[in-house]
Amino acid sequence: MTTIRCLRVIVALTAVLLGSTFLSPAGAQGKGPDANQPPPPPPPPPGPTAVQVSANPEDKRGNELRVTWQEPTEAPPAGLNLAGYTIYLLEGPFREGRKQKPPKRQELLVRPERLEATVSDLKPWRDYRVAVAAVYVPVGEELMPDPVVPSAAANEGARESEPVASETLSPAGKWFKREMSNVLVISLLYSVIVLLTIGLARRRDMYVRPIAGLRAVDDAIGRATEMGRPILYIAGLSGIGDIATIASMLILGHLSKRTAAYETPVLVPCLDPLVMSVEREIVREAHLEAGKPESYNPDNIFYVTDSQFGYVAAVDGIMLRQRPAANFYMGAFFAESLILAETGSTTGAIQIAGTDSDTQLPFFITACDYTLMGEELYAASAYLSRDPLLLAQLKGQDLGKVLLFVMLLVGLVLVGFTTGPGEWFLKLLEAKGG
Amino acid sequence: MERLLRIDRRVIFVLIFAAVLVPFLANLKLKPGAPSPSTRDVYDFIGKLPAGAAIMLAFDYGPASMPELQPMAAAICRHAFRRDLRVICLALSPQGFLLADRVLAETGPQEGAAYGEDYVNLGFKPGYTAVVLNMGQSIPGVYSQDTKGTPVERLPVMRGIRNYSDIALIVDLASSNTPATWVAFAHERFKVPVAAGITAVMATEYYPFYQSKQLVGLLNGLKGAAEYEYLIENPDRGAMGMASQSIAHAVIIVFVILGNVGYFGARRRRRVTR
Amino acid sequence: MRKAIPLVIGFVTGTFMFVQFFVPHEAGEYGYKLLLDWVQIISAFAMILGLASLFHSNWEKVRRRRRDYGYSVVTLVAFVFMVYVGLFRPGEPVQPRGWVYGRDSQGAVGRWDRELGREDQFSLLIESDQDTGHGSWSNHGTGWQVNWGRVPVMARCPYEVSVYCRAQPAGGPVAALEVSYVDERGEPLPREHPRVEAKPDTADWQQLKVPTKAPEGAAEMHIKLSATGRGKVWFDDLGIRQTEGMASISPPNPKFDQPERLPTIRKLADTEDGSGFKWLFDNVLVPLDATMFSLLAFFMASAAYRTFRARTPEATVLLVVAVIIMLGRVPLGELIHKQFPELCEWFMMVPTVAARRGILFGVALGSIATSLRIILGIERSHLGGS
Lengths: 434, 274, 386
Known about the structure:
The complex is a heterotrimer.
Chain A: H1 2-23, H2 25-29, E1 49-55, E2 65-70, E3 80-91, E4 104-109, E5 116-119, E6 128-138, E7 159-160, E8 164-165, H3 181-201, H4 212-227, E9 231-234, H5 243-262, E10 266-270, H6 273-289, E11 301-303, H7 308-322, E12 326-330, H8 337-346, E13 350-355, H9 361-367, E14 370-373, H10 376-385, H11 388-415, H12 421-429
Parallel strand pairs in A: 9-10, 9-12, 10-11, 12-13, 13-14
Antiparallel strand pairs in A: 1-2, 2-5, 3-4, 3-6, 6-7, 6-8
Helix pairs in contact in A: 3-11, 4-5, 5-6, 5-10, 7-8, 10-11, 11-12
Chain B: H1 9-25, H2 37-47, E1 54-60, H3 66-82, E2 86-91, H4 96-110, E3 119-124, H5 128-137, H6 139-142, E4 169-174, H7 178-190, E5 194-198, H8 203-211, E6 218-220, H9 221-231, H10 237-273
Parallel strand pairs in B: 1-2, 1-4, 2-3, 4-5, 5-6
Helix pairs in contact in B: 1-10, 2-9, 3-4, 3-9, 5-7, 9-10
Chain C: H1 4-20, H2 26-63, H3 69-88, E1 100-101, E2 108-113, E3 123-128, E4 134-138, E5 158-168, E6 174-182, E7 195-198, E8 206-213, E9 220-228, E10 231-242, E11 248-249, H4 263-269, H5 275-307, H6 313-328, H7 331-336, H8 340-349, H9 351-375
Antiparallel strand pairs in C: 1-4, 2-3, 3-10, 4-9, 5-8, 5-10, 6-7, 6-9, 10-11
């Protein structure tokens, strides 16, 4: 319908236009063939010369190019002054006979003395050409950018030369953050220390300080088995990307292996469905390994909600109704930690917590029987597995701490000198950018 | 004496409930004394911005943290509107943008600010690291429209705002670890000043950032909110909450003292009977 | 093989994430964002698994009449109800076809009036009980194609747009008619928007007329009917006339008498939350969340009473510092001694931060070592077997 209407409009308009042409006095008098021809446009004003494009040495991300040029060699047309330049961006290399994408108007430079510009927001590895056109305005006027399209001139009577294009080039960028060298060196150094201690562990036994909270794990399992009640395991309220959640899932694996032997159920309410899926897999593997695949019940690991306090309400309900004999809180926790642990403590369960969320540690220490603090959470998996290779990692961590301690001491002494070595040391350790 | 060691939890609960409720019923407001330097720094920073500068307010919290963070948001909005600053609100937490709406609907008309001209709510975008990073390239590229579906280029408040270089300050009101993200990506990478308003329980986590000047200032819990309210001479819900908190802390201290009196009394009696 | 593939994936992605941290080139960031996108996609599928698990475990409890199955009934009913309200938006009125009430409205409500009209019983109504209330109806942005009220125009053509309006109380709210244009891609054309406004009378329908010319590049006309101020304003009988030439344009649903087509699909497709969902959020979720969080105050008090006892020297230090902090955080402390808040601040800034940094060093080293042993495949317990 609308198309037909549009056609009608076009037909009507054409009729009106044709009618007016034939009936107009000019048409009737017939001025000769020249009268219908528009006057030839004036030649375009002179453009810039020596337009060259190069990689921007400051460009790290690989999305910038620098363009330089020279002033037009010819004089400006009469009544006009050179007032600035317009930068155009052409995508793709120039190919004879191929249709080129229309140039993108990029920027209007209002200072004629500026002969270089940076073109940004480009894509790495793509070919670009940059074109520059000179902009002229009537004598006595200043070049004004258009309020709606700031890359175009708003002056009445402004004229632009033909754009002069550069060669084809693609942005380069950099492949290493030099300012992060210190972080790289320390990370690599620490990794080598950890790997070396693991290598050493193959040759000799290592002593690991006992962690009370982890020794109590067996008591907790025994108690639950005796009482015929389940164990409740909370893997923190963070997502799968959090290393604390990963450490917690490793602990759950070891715990499940031990409980599988006694067929004590471990209830795992989950906040994140992704964590739930991985935990189901880990617990299933643990049961297989313990030789009790039949005791694995996927319904014991279930999704509750992703709302923080909705989750707390559900878990508190489970504690009060099912009265688990032992509660484990392992992973990252936030404001809900005390609500969980206090409710658990009123039910009389053995409570073992472990978190790297240092702000929540006081709450767990107050309301739980045992608390693994900070790094102990990461050590727990190694400790529970008693695997010498994993235990060796703890040794590596200790050596790392010694390294940090030495650096702190050196820093403490050197920072006393505000200039010279102190300044040098501070600069050495300064991490720039994330 | 031993009875003092076995006070029923419910007695404590009832007294705490009364301590929190009474100031609200009696409309009792308490002045939190001289403002702490971390609050003062935020106030001074906003106070020194030229009229027309834009501040970005990130509502990275849910309804649970409203009592602590909502008064801060209201006080900062009021301060900004009075100084003719532009306020750009957004949320990295899915429920945050609704809370931003509440604050703006209350403070905007009261301070004579208009939606779209003086302030805007850009809403929530998921994937917070990517959002913070991408806004460094282009803010309209990340938020092409506001929560009402108006394209940002048609909003006068967003005129001239391309990326962080056009933002004078980011204030992150947070109940989780988002201030660290803003510091790491917006401040460290794009050099835009960042301040934070946080719940009191998170305070220790962010003092190091304030000490290292990665945060220009820090509003710490209800106290920070009340201090800011008094700095802009508009005591409101923060000041009211301060009264509740005062009485509640006093009640807790009384119970801690009772517990200790009972504990030492019982120990002495045990020694005597031995 | 079953364990080798996950180990290889872990090694490759772990190493990539480490390397990209030191690469400033956009390629590094691109890879990082790509992996984040993958995580989001996997999360979306995992969410389906999660919801299935939630439904299944509660359904099983109800089906087998397990202990406390009543709670599961509540969960299931709430679950189904929220999904229904969120997706199908019951109780939301049917809209007139081609017209949508604007989201930029403040303090005013828009309604399709099916009782009062100029010649029939249909009109668009905007109602407000505030002096600053503002609302508008427009013919774009309905979000569901069969209901789009498109008005195609010809560039450079002059038009006259008219609409009848009526107000209550007389001389109260201001009615306005505004016209703007978009190009073929739907991008608004930055030109002055012709607009006319009036304070219409109660008794009679008054015609608002605005002459306009479609600018260069215009493809469609956007019409906005708005009202500002306390009271009610009705709009009816929209007309568009091409003032030069003979053609006339009839806007879709000009008498506002046709209902939208397939309202359920419009509701399903709309990205904005419905009014019912918002009401539930404000009146159910917010108070419930706040209630759970506020339990913390009670538990904090009972935990403090139970554990802050001066049993050992360490416990005494903890007790004394706790009391100082509690007093220093509230005006009460300042009443006792002027220096209390400063002392409190010192504890927060110095000893607490020192202890925290100590813990953080350990956490950082521990997390690097844990990552290392997962990336290098030394830790395999998550794959079953150590």
